[in-house]
Specification:
This protein is mostly helical. Helix content is about 80%, strand content about 0%.
């Protein structure tokens, strides 16, 4: 076995999780390998420090504030999503009604009709594209919660 293989057994040795055979082979290796012996010594120090660490359970008030904040963020997110979808649908509906009125009006010129239709379609595509991109990057933004 190589030193790398023995390093995989290091934590098992410290936690007394190795079989007798594995422990004996590991101790033989330690006797001849100063690097692994040094690393074992460092891990023993680290284990002694971490064994003294205790988990402090947060107060009930802190948990209540945490869950209240989550519920508020979820409610606001749902509200903004519903508002945005409704606004998009109303804008699309209004655009179609406007196009319908202009297209069915016999006094309006053909060039104006085509131009308005192209304008509304292009605007709708642009709006949906920008909105979709913003929502995607907002959800993936790693620095969203960083204060500037």
């Amino acid at each position: 076995m190589t030193c790398h293989d023995y390093k995989d057994l290091l934590m098992g040795y410290l936690d007394n999780e190795l079989s007798d055979e594995q422990r004996n082979r590991f101790e033989e290796h330690l006797a001849g390998c100063p690097e692994c012996a040094r690393e074992l010594k460092e891990f023993r120090k680290l284990k002694a420090i971490t064994d003294e660490v205790t988990l402090v359970e947060p107060e009930d008030r802190i948990w209540q504030d945490y869950w209240t904040g989550i519920y508020n963020r979820i409610e606001r997110s749902i509200g903004w999503i519903i508002f945005s979808v409704s606004a998009i649908l109303l804008a699309i509906y209004g655009g179609f009604k406007l196009i319908e009125k202009i297209v069915t009006d016999a006094t309006t010129g053909m060039l104006l009709k085509i131009g308005l239709i192209a304008l509304v379609v292009g605007l709708a595509i642009l709006f949906v594209s920008v909105l979709r991109e913003r929502m995607y990057f907002w959800s993936k933004d790693r620095y969203r919660n960083v204060r500037r």
